[in-house]
Amino acid sequence: MSRRTPLWSTSDVEAYRFDHAPDDHDHGPVDEIGTRLSASIVETGCFDVEIDGRAWRLEPGDVLLIHPGMRFRVLHPAGALSDACLSVSYLAGGDEDRARCSGWGSPQPPVRQADNRLRYLYRGLRQALDRDRPMFAETCAAALFQDIPRARPCSPRARRRRTFEQHARRISHAQERLDAEPTVDIRLDALARDAGMSTFHFARVFAELVGRPPHQYLLEARLRLATRMLDEGRNVTDTCFSCGFNDPAHFSRIFSERFGRPPSAWRRHRSAHAPG
């Protein structure tokens, strides 16, 4: 039979591995209906999926994106049940939680073929799960839903595996630094120098693998920190300057653009719904 092994979860998302028991046998096509927003990254093996009259074969590195109510059929070529997937599902409900991850519910093509961007997200998820780093795991999980449609396609010439691993290690280290020090005004040339890369090359590779340039990633890290501070009861002005922003009006504007409400309304909403 098929197996679903929980790996990690928060109030917003959960990750699990889906595979098949050694004695499982193919019983033909399986018709399913999506119940959650989820993304499944193929780790090993392959399988076919049919959606609305279209068919895809998913192989290692490819991603199947599922939304509630989506009807799809899964088939295994030659009856081989060798596939295993790392899956991430969105759990939270309500406008506030969806505002945190705006874009997760947007219409998206159901299948994404493997590229360096997806390989990097998978690598980040695996490392986050292995090292028990829930914030980084949640960041990578959110990117599966948010960033893939906007990510640039990689160069037609596939990057050699060894080069990819070298770049992935360096970019991952830069990400960790930005996550750990979001309030510090880190210069791009300093990040590039720390990675042993030229500034231009570092910026290009970072955007390719992470899905956005370094300055936008830092902005997201600061906004995530701001929501946590507001959730803790900090006032808006204090939160603004504590998160590395220099202008409360600018902070309020970009916060509203990202989360659908200004920080003052976010704080009032959280306070009104806090346990009494």
Notes on the protein architecture:
The longest helix has 20 residues, at 161-180. The protein is built from 10 helices and 10 strands. Helix content is 44%, strand content 20%. Among the domains are: 1-114, Jelly Rolls (Sandwich); 216-272, Orthogonal Bundle (Arc Repressor Mutant, subunit A), CATH 1.10.10. The protein is globular, with a radius of gyration of 20 Å. The strands form 2 sheets. Strands 1-2-9-4-7-10 form a 6-stranded antiparallel β-sheet, covered by helices on one side. A 4-stranded antiparallel β-sheet has the order 3-8-5-6, with no helix packed on it. The chain has helices at residues 95-100, 116-131, 134-146, 161-180, 188-195, 199-210, 214-231, 236-242, 248-259, 263-272, and strands at residues 2-9, 13-20, 30-33, 38-44, 47-51, 54-58, 63-66, 71-75, 84-90, 111-112. With 276 residues, it is α+β, with helices and mostly antiparallel strands. Helix 4 (161-180) crosses helix 5 (188-195).
Briefly characterize the structure.
The protein has helices at 95-100, 116-131, 134-146, 161-180, 188-195, 199-210, 214-231, 236-242, 248-259, 263-272; strands spanning 2-9, 13-20, 30-33, 38-44, 47-51, 54-58, 63-66, 71-75, 84-90, 111-112.
Instruction: Return the CATH topology of the domain at 1-114.
Output: Jelly Rolls
Largest sheet: 6 strands, antiparallel
- Strand proportion, as a percent range, falls in 15-25%
Structural class determined from secondary elements: alpha+beta
Which CATH class of the domain at 1-114 applies here?
Mainly Beta
Q: What coarse outline follows from CA principal-axis ratios?
A: globular
- Output the number of helix runs: 10
Identify the CATH architecture of the domain at 1-114.
Answer: Sandwich
Record field, number of beta strands: 10
**Percent of residues in helical segments?**
40-55%
Query: What is the element string, with H for helices and E for strands?
Result: EEEEEEEEEHEHHHHHHHHH
pLDDT average, as an integer? Answer: 81
Quote the distance from N terminus to C terminus: 46 Å
- State the strand order across the main sheet: 1-2-9-4-7-10
Rg from alpha-carbon coordinates = 20 Å
Contiguous runs where pLDDT drops below 50 for at least 5 residues:
93-106, 148-159
